[in-house]
């Protein structure tokens, strides 16, 4: 086990989780354009605070007057993302030093570095393309992919290369992998729902505008590439298209719940994985409850942010389970 690499990977995973939750907080509080430029904020490395700074910023960016309560959220998110970049650089430095127990992590470390640089570009495009939904969703998925790869590195660098899971756990790998695929698809649907401001398109539950099968329109709802230059803050789709996105996310939630519940039941049948199965059920029930409360309570910010955070924890737990079911290799 490489203790230095393992500790760095654990630290980076924790920071990545905080960045994801903070990113959700920024997005859900409509602060994604709190700073109209990148990487600074109104041309500075910090957000305008003093009266003369705000006046200068308003003069330089008349189309986007300073909103202090949004600007500081966006910049704190960027600062924390910068810390994560430094941690990833440190991971690569350690992984690429010529010590015999590191080469197996070099490709993964390099992939993480490439991804976080691309993620930074997506963060820039999120601002410069004015919350273009495809870019917003890609930024969300990029952050979760980065989180997943860092978690995988943390888990793999913390076990012996000779680790061999028991036969019952190895047999569950295809089930866990299927659960991961379904969860990722549902997270993508959730990202598309958020990027298109469709979270409250159906204001009632379990029906949608009083119907169990609302009128839908998939063509516009799932058109990925849209016009560049439009300000997408607040969304531009009509109600029918937003209802379609929201309803698809609801159906996806049912499918995800059933698939992951099946995985949890299989885990609980094996004594060695009963706790893992129980935790999966707990996270599933929590996530479904938060999703329902988002609708019933009209998307309260703490609840909506928690919904994003628990999605990341579900992803982390499934990666941990897949790691436990995977043998170490020299």
What's the helical proportion of residues? 55-70%
What proportion of the residues form beta strands (DSSP E)? under 5%
Count of helices?
11
Rg calc: 21 Å
Shape: globular
Question: Helix/strand-derived class?
Answer: mainly alpha
Euclidean distance between termini CA atoms: 11 Å
Number of domains as seen in the coordinates: 2
User: What is the N-to-C succession of helices and strands?
Assistant: HHHHHHHHHHH
Largest sheet: none
Average predicted confidence as pLDDT: 90
Number of strands: 0
Short description:
With 330 residues, the chain is mainly alpha-helical. It has 2 domains: 1-158, no CATH class; 165-330, no CATH class.
Q: How is this fold's topology laid out?
A:
Blueprint (H helix, E strand, L loop, with lengths): L2 H26 L22 H10 L7 H28 L10 H23 L4 H24 L10 H5 L1 H23 L22 H4 L17 H30 L5 H23 L4 H24 L6
Helix pairs in contact: 1-3, 1-5, 1-11, 3-4, 4-5, 5-7, 5-11, 7-9, 7-11, 9-10, 10-11
Question: Can you tell me about this structure?
Answer:
Helix 7 packs antiparallel against helix 11 and helix 10 runs antiparallel to helix 11 (301-324). The protein has two domains: 1-158, no CATH class; 165-330, no CATH class. The chain has 330 residues and is mainly alpha-helical. 38% of the residues are buried. It is built from eleven helices and no strands. The longest helix is centred in the C-terminal third of the chain and has 30 residues, at 239-268. The mean pLDDT is 90. It has helices spanning 3-28, 51-60, 68-95, 106-128, 133-156, 167-171, 173-195, 218-221, 239-268, 274-296, 301-324. GO terms for molecular function: metal ion binding; oxidoreductase activity. It is a multi-pass membrane protein. It is found in: Membrane.
């Amino acid at each position: 086990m490489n203790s230095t690499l393992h500790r760095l990977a654990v630290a980076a995973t924790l920071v990545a989780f905080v960045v994801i939750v903070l990113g959700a907080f920024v997005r859900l509080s409509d602060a994604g354009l709190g700073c109209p430029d990148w990487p600074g904020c109104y041309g500075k490395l910090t957000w305008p605070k003093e009266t003369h700074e705000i006046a200068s910023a308003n003069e330089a960016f008349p189309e986007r007057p300073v909103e202090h309560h949004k600007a500081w959220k966006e910049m704190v998110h960027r600062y924390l993302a910068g810390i994560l970049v430094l941690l990833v650089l440190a991971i690569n430095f350690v992984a690429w030093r010529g010590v015999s127990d590191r080469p197996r992590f070099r490709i993964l470390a390099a992939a993480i570095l490439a991804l976080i640089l691309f993620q930074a570009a997506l963060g820039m495009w999120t601002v410069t393309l004015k919350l273009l939904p495809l870019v917003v969703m890609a930024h969300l998925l990029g952050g979760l992919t980065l989180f997943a790869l860092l978690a995988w590195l943390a888990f793999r660098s913390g076990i012996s290369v000779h680790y061999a899971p028991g036969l019952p756990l190895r047999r569950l790998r295809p089930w866990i992998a299927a659960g991961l695929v379904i969860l990722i698809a549902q997270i993508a649907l959730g990202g598309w729902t958020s990027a298109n401001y469709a979270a409250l398109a159906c204001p009632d539950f379990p029906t949608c505008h009083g119907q169990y099968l609302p009128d839908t329109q998939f063509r516009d709802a799932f058109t990925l590439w849209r016009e560049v230059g439009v300000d997408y803050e607040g969304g531009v789709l009509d109600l029918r298209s937003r209802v379609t996105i929201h309803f698809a996310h609801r159906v996806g939630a049912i499918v995800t719940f059933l698939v992951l519940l099946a995985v949890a039941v299989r885990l609980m049948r094996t004594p060695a994985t009963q706790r893992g199965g129980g935790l999966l059920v707990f996270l599933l029930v929590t996530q479904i409850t938060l999703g329902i409360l988002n609708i019933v309570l009209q998307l309260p910010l703490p609840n909506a942010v928690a919904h994003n955070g628990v999605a990341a924890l579900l992803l982390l737990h499934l990666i941990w389970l897949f790691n436990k079911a995977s043998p170490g290799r020299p």
